[in-house]
Structures are given as structure tokens and as C-alpha cells.
Write a structure and sequence with these properties.
The complex is a heterodimer of chains A (230) and B (484). Chain A is α/β, with parallel strands linked by helices. Chain A folds into two domains: 33 residues, no CATH class; 184 residues, NagB/RpiA/CoA transferase-like (Rossmann fold). Chain A is built from six helices and twelve strands. In chain A, strand 5 and strand 6 form a beta hairpin. The radius of gyration of chain A is 21 Å and the shape is elongated. The termini of chain A are far apart. In chain B, a hairpin with a 4-residue loop joins strand 5 and strand 6. Chain B is globular, with a radius of gyration of 26 Å. Classes of the chains: A alpha/beta (230), B alpha/beta (484).
């Protein structure tokens, strides 16, 4: 008997369920319905309150946030960030149409590279799928335009998120991910990696002293773009 | 892993004499429990979410076989492989084979209790493959060849000086007299060392906080980001998880995530919550090319439908450790195996045998704090009592303790004699107690060597009750006690 059969068989005999077929159908239904459970009140806000709560919660976990109106303000905001933290003028950007198409020459000394993350990346700019207000969380999905390694290898991570894509709660994001996958013809699947990111990397493993920048980024900088176009 | 659980009594004595350990444990007491309370206070729905989280896992366990089949189907559809392993040995062999097929020299690992349970590190090493723990705490204890002493803070028992010594011994390529006084310097050194490992590893081995049946996804929760570099960079990603980690849907996982970090560290949510599904997809720029899930039984199917069934709801948050007066006194290593605290005292006998772990169910005052903070509302004290009953039936434990218990049972089953005996002892002890207390008593050295025992005053509760005595509104009738 294979390990699979032995494990499943033992569970079945120990459970002693009355009607297997009925249970099987009930479980298929439950999986397909993927109903929402209780959503906390703080996850059920209107758009303005959502953005306010998102910013408040993200700064509580040591992220910095700048609100911009248009996408084309991003290169200047990135330059500004590099100056503030006295970082080398070198940035790895996601090959995302809304980021790669920007006029990065606004700061001529800025070196721009496009692609996935590398071990010696200092600063990256990537595009969020959305945000979650209840905990100030960014949601990143993997894909050809959004490599996951950009979220973890650099020491400074700059993330662009559209204000109207900041949801109140995580469940609203799952719904959007399902919609996007269905539109792509991949119904019932999810991207290879979905990251919820809430503040920069940290550890308290040495004497419970909180330190930022354990293995992932030491700083997380969020650019919230309010223009409604996509 | 070879257990030292049979030596619990000696382990505990040693731990109480260990000053650095006691200092570390004192810090733990001040930290996590208070942060948990604050996080719960910020979320009015916290208690309701705990109920929902419990109900989700209860439902899963009642249909575990069906959910496992549904989960497996989704993993395969997304291009991954599922390996079913009944024993630790099966799991080790399976992991080794995957590594060998990938021609792996180095395997990066993010923290996984199951990997400790199957002692995969030693096994890989014996077979010429270098396993590298990447969680900072796990990295430190791997260098020291120690097991974790806490589920979520594995190196909690060490001082920064001990960590500095460990790094000096291990990182011999660096200057001998480099300054390592500050935690920041220690972190920087570990980060640099591990960064090269992340980039060169052939296989990444992670655990799973949950497995989602709806999509065939595994969930990883960390604060450091090490699990992400582990699963994303190497060519092969292996997930090792025990069968009870299943939850039905993304929504169900979300509900459990709302109580996990709050119970564990008092964060609203951990920094990184990651959902991995299968290998990299068409045109993805990164991610592994192969995705394997090693599903481990290792004694869990025996728990299904048993008195310990509910233990399978555990999500390994560590709250019961942080709140346990015994854990906070002796730390995790005293328990002698991978797990510790109240959850360990219930789980370990299930996994390594009741006789081997016979002391652990007694390492509890049954104060009930563990159950009151458990996000999954697992009745830990009830299950500890179940183990004690089983041990009594199996005639384990000292003759003296068994004799004392038997006499006690004889007495309490005869109320008249019991009351008479109580009235007499209360009267006699009340008379001979010096200034209302005892400095020593036969058969009670364990208590009186550390503190005085209060002598009884007045009559027993029942005689007072029969004579019409009633408490005031606060319910307090008498409160007395003595400490040295």
C-alpha cells in the first residue's frame, strides 16, 4: 500500500463519518463558494477613510509614505528619496508598463536598470497589486511585469500603489485576484506568489531587540497615487 | 531528534540555575503577553475571530481525508508534486532524493518545526548536502548544534554575548577582534553570511503555516523575509508540512491569519505573509522551476478521533508557551524535544510515546492560562489530565505518588470520613502552625524549602457553610498566606 493510501485510509477509519458522498459534495461546494468569514469593522471603510487608515497602519510598522497625484511624479519622488537617505543614484525598476514607461531622465544622473532582483541591488521600485487598509499591508503578485525578487533583495524597497486599489480588507483583494485571473483565462488559479508586505523586514531574535532589515529591505517606502486612470 | 524528555526533572533543575536563561525568560514574560493583550484590545472582534478560527479547523479535521485529496489535486494542477510520507524516515528519504535529483550542494531552509521533528539537517549533512538555516534565531542555534527553545523565537534562551561567541567560533574567515557587542553588528554579520547562501542555494526548503485546499497553496509567515528568499531564489522549492495544516479556502486562511500574529508576537500581522502555488508560471521572471510538497503523518493519523484530536487544531503561535508559568521558569530545552510548553506537553507524548515523555504532562500547574490564550481554543489542561489518567492506568510514575493518589481517591469517595479527616487535620494543623505558618512539613519539602506553607485557620469550608457563613459580594471570605 502506498503512503498516500495508508494515510487517507487511516484518517477515514478513525473519523467514522456517516455519509462519505454527501460530505464530499459539501466540501466541493464549500471550496467553490469560498464564503467570507467575519470581517472586522476597521476593514469596512469608505475610500477616504481606507487610505487614511492604510497610511496610519503602514507608518505604525515603520513604512514611510508619500501621496502623489500622477504617475509621472514618481521619478522625482524616487530621486528625492535617494537624496534624503544619501543613497547612490542607482535604481532597479520592475519591467511594469506603468513604471518602465515613465520619463526617468528627469534626473540625468540616475542609473535605471529594469528586471528581476539581484543580490547587490540597493534600491528597487515595484508595482503593488493593491493595499489593505486594516493593517497597512501591500499586496504584491508575481508575474512577468512584477518579479517577486524585487520585493526582497534590495535594502530599500519603493512600492507604487494606486489609491483606488487600496481595499478595506484582505478578502476584497482575494476577490480582485480571482477576477483578474478569470479575465486572463486562468479561472480558479492564483499567481505563483502572492506577498502581503506590512512594513520593512525585522527580527527580534537576539535578546528580543527589534532590528529592521533582517534579510529583506531595511526600509519600505510607499508611493500612493491618487489619479484614477489605469 | 533524540529526546532528553526522560530527564525532564534534572533538565528543569539545571534550567533554574542557569542565570542567562533566567534573564532571557524574564524578558519574554514582559514582552509577548503584554503585546498580545494590546493587539487584542485594538481589535474588538478578536474573540469572535478566535471562535471562527477554531470552527474552521474543527470542520477540516472532521473531513481531513477529503480536504487532503482536494488539496493534492490543486497542487498537481498547478504543476507541483505531492509526496505522502507516513514516517520521519520516509520524509527524510524523500527530501534527500529530491535534493539529489537536483544535484544540490546547498539547501537553504526557513524555519520549520516539522523539519526539526524529522531531524532532516543531520540527515542531509550525512549525505553530503549542506543545510543552512536562514531565520536568524535558527541560524544561531544551528551553529551551536542546539534545538529551538521556543516555536517562534528559537534562540530566546541566549544572550547577545553568547551569540557573539558563537559567531566568532563559526565565522573564522573574519577578523578575530571585530566588535560584536551590539545586536545590530551581529545581525549585519549574519545577513552578509546568509546573503551569499541565499544566492547560491540549489534547493529551498520551507515549512508551511497552512496549506490551502482551494488553490493548492502553501502559506509562509515570517518577519525577516528569509522564507521568501528561500522559496523564490533556488531552482527547487520543497515544502515540508504535516497533514493537519490544511484549511479550505483563501478566506479561511485569512481568518486564521487575523489571530495568528496577534496571539504570537502581538503584531496585527507579520511583516511577510506569503502564498506560494506551484512552480514559476509562464513568462515569470523568477521563482522556482520545481515545486514539491512533502506531506508528513508521523503519528498524527493516530490522534484523529482520539482524546487528543483537538490538539491538531494547533497553529504553532507559541502563546501557550509565553503564558505558562512552567515554561517561563524552565524554558524550552528542559522539555527535551522539538516542542515545549503546554502544547509540547500534550503533543510530544503523542509523537514519541507516553513512557518516554511521561514527565511532561506533569510539567503544568493546570492553571488554565494556556487554554485562555490559545487562538484555537484547544483544551490543553483537559488533555494534560488525560495523559495523567492514562499514565496512572498504565502504572507509570513513582510508587509513592500512585499510593498517595489511591489513598486520596479512597478518601474522597467517602464523604463522611473525608469531612471527619479534614476537620481533624485542620484543627491539628491550625494548632501546631507557628505564627500561622509552617517552615517545613514532611512530604511537602518541595514547597516548604522555597516558601512557608500557610497553616489553616478556623474551620473547613463545609463546616462554615453549614453554620451559615456566606461570602461578601466580592466572594471573599478569608484571604491569608505567607511567603518567606
Amino acid at each position: 500500500m502506498s503512503g498516500r493510501d495508508a494515510i487517507l485510509g487511516k484518517i477515514k477509519s478513525n473519523l467514522d463519518r456517516p455519509n462519505d458522498l454527501e460530505s464530499k459534495q459539501a466540501i466541493q461546494n464549500r471550496l467553490q463558494a469560498h464564503q467570507k468569514n467575519l470581517i472586522p469593522q476597521r476593514g469596512e471603510l469608505n475610500q477616504d477613510q481606507r487610505i487614511a487608515l492604510f497610511c496610519q497602519e503602514a507608518s505604525r510598522v515603520n513604512a514611510s509614505i508619500v501621496e502623489l497625484v500622477h504617475f509621472d511624479e514618481i521619478p522625482a519622488a524616487v530621486s528625492e528619496y535617494l537624496r534624503t537617505h544619501q543613497l547612490p543614484a542607482k535604481v532597479k525598476i520592475a519591467p511594469h508598463k506603468d513604471i518602465a514607461s515613465l520619463d526617468w531622465d528627469v534626473n540625468t544622473s540616475l542609473m535605471i536598470e529594469e528586471g528581476r532582483g539581484a543580490g547587490d541591488d540597493g534600491v528597487s521600485v515595484s508595482m503593488a497589486f493593491g493595499g489593505v487598509a486594516e493593517t497597512g499591508t501591500l499586496v504584491m503578485t508575481s508575474g512577468p511585469e512584477t518579479p517577486t525578487s524585487l520585493n526582497f533583495l534590495p535594502l530599500d524597497h519603493i512600492v507604487v500603489v494606486r489609491a483606488h486599489e487600496i481595499a478595506g480588507n484582505y478578502e476584497a483583494i482575494w476577490e480582485r485576484i480571482r477576477d483578474v485571473q478569470t479575465k486572463r483565462g486562468c479561472e480558479g488559479t492564483v499567481p505563483r506568489t502572492v506577498n502581503w508586505i506590512t512594513g520593512p523586514s525585522r527580527t527580534a531574535d537576539i535578546e528580543q531587540t527589534l532590528l529592521l532589515g533582517a534579510h529583506g529591505p531595511q526600509r519600505l517606502h510607499i508611493l500612493v497615487i491618487s489619479e484614477a486612470t489605469t | 531528534m533524540q529526546s532528553t524528555s526522560p530527564n525532564f526533572t534534572q533538565n528543569a533543575k539545571d534550567a533554574l540555575q542557569d542565570d542567562p536563561l533566567q534573564a532571557a525568560l524574564a524578558k519574554l514574560t514582559d514582552g509577548f503577553p503584554i503585546q498580545r493583550l494590546e493587539a487584542a484590545a485594538r481589535l474588538p472582534e478578536f474573540e469572535d475571530l478566535r471562535d471562527e478560527a477554531r470552527d474552521i479547523k474543527t470542520h477540516v479535521l472532521e473531513n481531513l481525508d477529503l480536504y487532503l485529496e482536494a488539496y493534492e489535486k490543486k497542487v498537481v494542477e498547478s504543476g507541483g508534486h505531492v509526496h505522502w510520507c507516513q514516517t520521519a524516515e520516509d520524509a527524510r528519504e524523500t527530501i534527500l532524493k529530491i535534493c539529489q535529483n537536483a544535484n544540490a550542494k546547498t539547501v537553504t531552509k526557513s524555519k520549520s518545526m516539522i523539519s526539526e521533528e524529522i531531524a532532516v539537517n543531520d540527515f542531509l549533512e550525512e549525505n553530503g548536502i549542506e543545510p543552512v538555516e536562514t531565520d536568524l534565531g535558527e541560524y544561531i542555534i544551528q551553529l551551536r548544534d542546539e534545538p529551538p527553545s521556543h516555536i517562534i523565537a528559537p534562540a530566546i534562551h541566549l544572550s547577545k554575548e553568547q551569540v557573539a561567541d558563537t559567531f566568532r567560533d563559526a565565522h573564522t574567515d573574519l577578523e578575530k577582534d571585530r566588535p560584536l557587542d551590539e545586536p545590530r553588528a551581529l545581525l549585519e554579520e549574519a545577513r552578509a553570511k546568509l546573503r551569499t547562501k541565499f544566492l547560491s542555494a540549489d534547493v529551498g526548503l520551507t515549512g508551511a503555516n497552512m496549506l490551502i485546499a482551494e488553490t493548492g497553496t502553501n502559506v509562509l509567515v515570517t518577519n525577516e523575509g528569509n522564507a521568501d528568499l528561500t522559496n523564490n531564489l533556488p531552482r527547487v522549492h520543497i515544502v515540508i508540512a504535516s497533514i493537519e495544516k490544511i484549511v479550505p479556502t483563501l478566506e479561511d486562511a485569512t481568518t486564521i491569519l487575523r489571530v495568528l500574529a496577534r496571539s504570537a508576537t502581538g503584531q496585527d500581522i507579520s511583516v511577510y505573509t506569503t502564498f506560494c502555488t506551484g512552480p514559476r508560471q509562464l513568462n515569470d521572471l523568477d521563482g522556482p522551476e520545481e515545486y514539491h510538497v512533502v506531506l508528513l503523518d508521523n503519528g498524527r493519523t493516530d490522534m484523529i478521533g482520539s482524546e487528543f484530536h483537538e490538539m491538531l487544531r494547533c497553529i504553532r503561535c507559541g502563546a501557550c508557551l509565553n503564558h505558562c508559568p512552567v515554561y517561563k521558569s524552565v524554558g524550552g530545552h528542559a522539555y527535551g524535544w522539538v516542542y515545549s510548553g503546554p502544547m509540547g506537553a500534550v503533543l510530544i507524548p503523542n509523537l514519541i510515546g507516553m513512557e518516554e515523555a511521561q514527565h511532561l504532562p506533569h510539567a503544568s500547574t493546570l492553571c488554565g492560562k494556556c487554554e485562555s490564550v490559545c487562538p484555537m481554543r484547544i483544551p490543553l489542561p483537559k488533555m494534560l489530565r488525560r495523559w495523567r489518567e492514562r499514565q496512572f492506568k498504565a502504572e507509570l510514575g513513582s510508587t509513592r505518588a500512585r499510593w498517595a493518589l489511591k489513598s486520596w481517591v479512597w478518601l474522597v469517595k467517602r464523604p463522611r470520613i473525608y469531612r471527619l479527616a479534614m476537620n481533624m487535620s485542620v484543627a491539628i494543623l491550625g494548632q501546631i502552625g507557628f505564627r500561622g505558618r509552617f517552615k517545613s512539613l514532611p512530604f511537602a519539602k518541595g514547597w516548604t524549602s522555597k516558601r512557608d506553607l500557610a497553616a489553616p485557620t478556623g474551620d473547613t469550608f463545609l463546616s462554615q457553610y453549614h453554620n451559615g457563613a456566606r461570602g461578601d459580594q466580592s466572594g471573599e471570605l478569608i484571604r491569608r498566606g505567607g511567603r518567606k
